[in-house]
Amino acid sequence: MSNHVYKVVDIVGSSPTSIEEAIETAIEKAGASLHNLQWFEVTETRGHIQDGKVAYYQVSLKVGFTLK
Amino acid sequence: MSNHVYKVVDIVGSSPTSIEEAIETAIEKAGASLHNLQWFEVTETRGHIQDGKVAYYQVSLKVGFTLK
Amino acid sequence: MSNHVYKVVDIVGSSPTSIEEAIETAIEKAGASLHNLQWFEVTETRGHIQDGKVAYYQVSLKVGFTLK
Amino acid sequence: MSNHVYKVVDIVGSSPTSIEEAIETAIEKAGASLHNLQWFEVTETRGHIQDGKVAYYQVSLKVGFTLK
Amino acid sequence: MSNHVYKVVDIVGSSPTSIEEAIETAIEKAGASLHNLQWFEVTETRGHIQDGKVAYYQVSLKVGFTLK
Amino acid sequence: MSNHVYKVVDIVGSSPTSIEEAIETAIEKAGASLHNLQWFEVTETRGHIQDGKVAYYQVSLKVGFTLK
Amino acid sequence: MSNHVYKVVDIVGSSPTSIEEAIETAIEKAGASLHNLQWFEVTETRGHIQDGKVAYYQVSLKVGFTLK
Amino acid sequence: MSNHVYKVVDIVGSSPTSIEEAIETAIEKAGASLHNLQWFEVTETRGHIQDGKVAYYQVSLKVGFTLK
Amino acid sequence: MSNHVYKVVDIVGSSPTSIEEAIETAIEKAGASLHNLQWFEVTETRGHIQDGKVAYYQVSLKVGFTLK
Amino acid sequence: MSNHVYKVVDIVGSSPTSIEEAIETAIEKAGASLHNLQWFEVTETRGHIQDGKVAYYQVSLKVGFTLK
Amino acid sequence: MSNHVYKVVDIVGSSPTSIEEAIETAIEKAGASLHNLQWFEVTETRGHIQDGKVAYYQVSLKVGFTLK
Amino acid sequence: MSNHVYKVVDIVGSSPTSIEEAIETAIEKAGASLHNLQWFEVTETRGHIQDGKVAYYQVSLKVGFTLK
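ok -> structure tokens follow
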């Protein structure tokens, strides 16, 4: 593993339900065009409010994948 | 939307169950006295421990609302 | 409470399911050897990805406990 | 001046034209309800994009004022 | 305590004598209009200089109080 | 809007005249190859100096756009 | 001194009187079980409030000591 | 260019009109005593308020110059 | 140079030998698909340990290149 | 005051007694060669330990002064 | 790997020769009492100077190991 | 040592070969005009790229020296 090079992209996912679902939505979408996704790191957790309630969570991720 | 002014307040919500519930509790409480809440940002996630288990989550938020 | 001294340790817990479960796993493990755990603070939320899905969440905590 | 106490509030102003105008809009609005505004500090500069152009700048400020 | 919501305000206190007195001045002033103050956190320690000596210390605090 | 996924890219624009023009140059260039640009955030403001004067401003941005 | 290895621990001390006393209390307690303490760094200054006054200061330290 | 050494100084410029003018004022003043100024980086944007309006912008810079 | 636009990408290189080799590996790999690489900035230095020794260094970089 | 330019220098003062005395020692020393000192900001509070007690506090300051 | 718990310790290593040797010295020392070391992260790179030359590098690490 | 005052300056050194050589070049240059250099801290590691290879490393340091 010692000679791998990773690329890291910034993605923001959202979900009306939970922080985990926002993360999973972002990773699923990223995986549609990028292969070999390896790890992620949460960099920001925000959300939008409607009628005094959380309308949706919005989670920013750094996602790393192997460059072949 | 380009001439809006927002005010941002810092609130801390808590919940024995989940980070999301702590966020929702804080926003519901803030909404009782502040109208036009628009968005939030998590700034800190902490919690208290009792008998070796999480007693409650405590989540700090910045919450933005429109100044009329 | 004003003359207590706390020690703080860094622990990383993981869970295939949720951020909260990763936190609880870390605290339970820490409680096996450290008594009087009082509070925690999340310092990093990361995770590993397998086959384009979250394989597990990995949450870094600072955990404080009373020094007798 | 040595025994003054200041309160600091977080405000976000916006402008389609410039960062300075966004700052001035925020301070003017804040001054409508708060007196004795003394200083500000920019904490974030963001903006919205429409049709590939800056629609408006959005500048977050901390604004300090004297508590009587 | 698990269902409390806190609000947090930013205050700056000053004192010609010490950092602690600047903190205490700020909290006393805040307590005149806000009840149920619970904790504070120092976010910045600055000061003004006159004739080559410290004229006064100026300490910025976040102060949390219970929202009823 | 709750199920959108955004991608975020880092761009640096420059201008001999103003910070706003450096931002607008960067966004215009980014818009040539990326569609659906939604928002930006300034992460760094630097510049080069020639003959004791500002030769050009150089502004680093995070720019978010919708992933279809 | 060039081949020393230090270990660093996180400790929180408290005092009803001053920031310095909170630091000294923490170091004295740490010195009861750890030898060869060399230096400290303040990472956070907080406190608790009771009846509108500072009940006690709570200072977080990193403390370094030589590993034999 | 690979064997140059730079020195970096911290300067604060101000202007009643714009952030750019505050930067240019600072650099012009620095250039009066320091030669070979090469680049700058904005580290803080603040300002003073009078009668509810921006009295002047105050911009902190790091300025780098070649050591001969 | 005043009207250039740069794009910045995040890359992680690794090496069993040195931090410099990890940086050079990452840049060489990036250069295979991106032209006009201009500068880099180290954002994180980590590594993996095997049998009580450094197995490999892992260095995260921001790498900037000119957008034509 | 709107057309002043400040220079800022980094100084570290120390004292066996208190954080305030370390600050005052640093400012007094700086004032011996620099005139028109205006303000300071604490950037780091550290110290050395001897025989399990604080030997001296060591406080890092940014100190601003008017450039004529 | 999904149910592992890691503990993280802070260590500072030094070397008269290189940053890498300072890291390796710290990890070797840590490995004498802690087993299952997995990864490290550099948090600070400092050094001491004697007679105008680097006397030794001093590198601060977070080192993670598996809790059985 | 308890009543020393240090001054700290920011210097950037470069080298085509290694991070350590960039540090040593900067300190040697600083030592030509400043005496009693005591310690340094790395604040930024960057570099320039030419023809897809590292042309030179560029390391920013804070360097402390005793004020007599």
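The domain at 5-67 of chain I is CATH 3.30.1660.10 (Dodecin subunit-like).
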